[in-house]
Specification:
It is a single chain. The protein has 496 residues and is an alpha+beta fold. The protein has 4 domains: 9-102, 2-Layer Sandwich (Uridine Diphospho-n-acetylenolpyruvylglucosamine Reductase, domain 2), CATH 3.30.43.10; 109-226, Uridine Diphospho-n-acetylenolpyruvylglucosamine Reductase, domain 3; 230-433, Vanillyl-alcohol Oxidase, Chain A, domain 3; 448-488, no CATH class. The chain has helices spanning 9-13, 15-25, 62-75, 127-134, 153-159, 166-169, 203-207, 241-253, 266-276, 296-312, 324-335, 337-341, 360-374, 402-419, 444-457, 475-478, and strands spanning 31-32, 55-57, 78-82, 98-102, 109-113, 118-121, 139-140, 176-182, 188-192, 216-223, 225-226, 230-238, 260-265, 286-294, 317-320, 347-350, 353-354, 378-383, 388-395, 483-484, 487-488. Strands 12, 13, 14, 15, 16, 17, 18 and 19 form an 8-stranded antiparallel sheet that branches. The chain has a 5-stranded antiparallel sheet with strand order 5-6-10-8-9. Helix 2 runs antiparallel to helix 3 (62-75), helix 8 packs across helix 10 (296-312) and helix 9 (266-276) packs across helix 11. The relative contact order is 0.11. InterPro entries: FAD-bd_oxidored_4_C, FAD-bd_PCMH, FAD-bd_PCMH-like_sf, FAD-bd_PCMH_sub2, FAD-linked_Oxase-like_C, FAD-linked_OxidoTrans_Type4, Oxid_FAD_bind_N, Vanillyl_alc_oxidase_C-sub2.
């Protein structure tokens, strides 16, 4: 089980004074201290871990966020930023000696600039809310996580979220142009804007995917895209998962970049079909959903090419959508695969790792062996085009030992991803879930260098401590001159 930092007695002793100060900053119902009312904030989407925070504060202005962080910086009180709480890695797990900074009231769309193809919003606006604000003009926001109806753009930035269309149009980091953020000491800064690239260091890229460790986002400018002339989805079924994986690699190798290229195995597609009635074939072991978009003539041509590649790899079922309603239905099953899994298991543990596409078939075989070893079923749903896997480990938390087996199974899957040349996460972040596996991918020097970045933004280490880093060093320790094998770096430089 994941262990969190021991609560600081000095911080707990300040609770009443801190709560009083927070109420002065956010009057009315903006501060929650009742244990029962704080239960709504005790976990995020990784529900296996729960803790009640010291307090919850719900600001509604950037100035309030600044004053809250300045107070916590001066008092050395830990802060956990929280969006909609849909994170699946425990990134918003509270700390018993810290406050939760809920950003749900930052829910306004501030500017729609169709000429520059940008939208500026507050971080509590939902992912889907951006598309709905501009779809009347034929535009949309490309990153589309399965939780897009609920997840917020601020949380998307924290985790660098993707979605089924990220293969062609990029993840959050490829679609964010500017940020307003509050640093841990309360300073308000702006990064980027409506222009394509900002000068100087890529601090915007650094913030995207930083998991709430470096600052609190209070405003976001994103790029929007014009809706393609035509978009059609093709369902492709295979007798084996390996054939499906090989077909994915062949489609990309042919120089085709689909708008989306997703894959589900037999347990996942059947659960999704029972849940959504999307029209999926039940007699296949793997199902690809390949979306092609662009001019109608190009789309029709590419459907023929992709279908030919699929047949060469043993496809037994091929069906292209004939209407927009049918295309949406094809995707509805995939986007609801996670909740659909709740119909076939009391609990499931959703993993997130990324591998090279060429390793897909091998990794799927190894996961099946692990499934038999641990005695737990697994349903596979993943962004096949970019190798981002989302295995759903099915278990029953009421059966002693099953949660622990599910965690061990998940850890082995992530270690396998690194072993074949992949990484620990694609879009869910590290949080607490993968924190203690970071040293399987990074050595001590790598981790210390990452922590130096943390220290540059947050020297007092009040923002989201206990997440991402297996062992968090004090900033003073990381600031010392580094000696490696008895030699200083850059020995020719004078030392003072």
């Amino acid at each position: 089980m994941v262990k969190m930092p021991e609560p600081d007695p000095e911080a707990l002793a300040k609770r009443d004074r801190i709560v009083g100060a927070l109420r002065e900053i956010v009057p009315g119902e903006g501060v929650i201290v009742s244990a029962d009312e704080m239960r709504a904030y005790e976990c995020d989407g990784l529900t296996a871990y729960r803790q009640v925070p010291m307090a919850v504060v719900l600001p509604s202005t950037t100035e309030q966020v600044s004053r809250i962080l300045r107070l916590c910086h001066e008092e050395r009180i830990k802060v956990v930023p929280r969006g909609a709480g849909t994170s699946l890695s425990g990134g918003a797990l509270p700390l018993t000696d810290g406050i939760v900074l809920g950003m749900g009231k930052f829910n306004k769309i501030l500017d729609i600039d169709l000429e520059n193809r940008t939208v500026t919003v507050q971080p509590g606006v939902t992912n889907l809310g951006i598309t709905r604000a501009v779809e009347h003009a034929g535009f949309y926001y490309a990153p589309d996580p399965s939780s897009q109806i609920a997840c917020t753009i601020g949380g998307n930035i924290a985790e660098n979220s993707g979605g089924v269309h990220c293969l062609k149009y990029g993840l959050t980091t490829n679609n964010v142009l500017g940020l307003e953020m509050v640093l841990p000491n309360g300073d308000i800064v702006r990064l980027g804007g409506k222009h394509l690239d900002a000068e100087g260091y890529d601090l915007l890229g650094l913030m995207t995917g930083s998991e709430g460790l470096l600052g609190v986002v209070t405003e976001v400018t994103v790029r929007i895209l014009q809706k393609p002339e035509t978009a059609r989805a093709v369902l492709i079924g295979f007798p084996t998962v390996e054939q499906g994986g090989d077909c994915v690699a062949a489609i990309i190798a042919a120089g085709i970049i689909p708008g989306g290229l997703e894959m589900m195995d037999h347990p996942a597609l059947n659960a999704a079909e029972d849940f959504c009635h999307a029209g999926y074939p039940r007699d296949v072991q793997a199902l690809l959903i390949c979306e092609l978009d662009g001019p109608a003539a190009e789309v029709d041509h590419l459907i023929g090419v992709v279908s030919g590649i699929a047949r060469q790899h043993g496809a037994t079922y091929i069906k292209a959508s004939e209407s927009e309603e049918e295309r949406i239905a094809f995707w509805a099953g995939r986007k609801n695969a996670f909740p659909a899994a709740g119909r076939i298991s009391p609990d499931y543990y959703c993993m997130d790792g990324t591998i090279p596409r060429r390793q897909l078939a091998y990794v799927l075989r190894r996961m099946e062996e692990m499934s038999q070893h641990y005695g737990l079923r697994v349903a596979n749903v993943f962004h096949a085009g970019d190798g981002n896997l989302h295995p759903l480990i099915l278990y029953d938390a009421n059966k002693p030992g099953e949660l622990e087996r599910a965690e061990a199974f998940g850890a082995d899957i992530l270690k396998l991803c690194v072993e074949v040349g992949g990484v620990l996460t694609g879009e869910h972040g590290v949080g607490v879930e993968k924190r203690d596996l970071m040293d399987t991918m990074f050595n001590e020097d790598d981790l210390k260098q990452q922590q130096r970045v943390k220290c540059a933004f947050d020297p007092s280490q009040i923002l989201n401590p206990g997440k991402v880093f297996p062992t968090l060093h004090r900033c003073a320790e990381l600031g010392r001159v580094h000696v490696h094998r008895g030699e200083l770096r850059f020995p020719d430089l004078p030392r003072f």
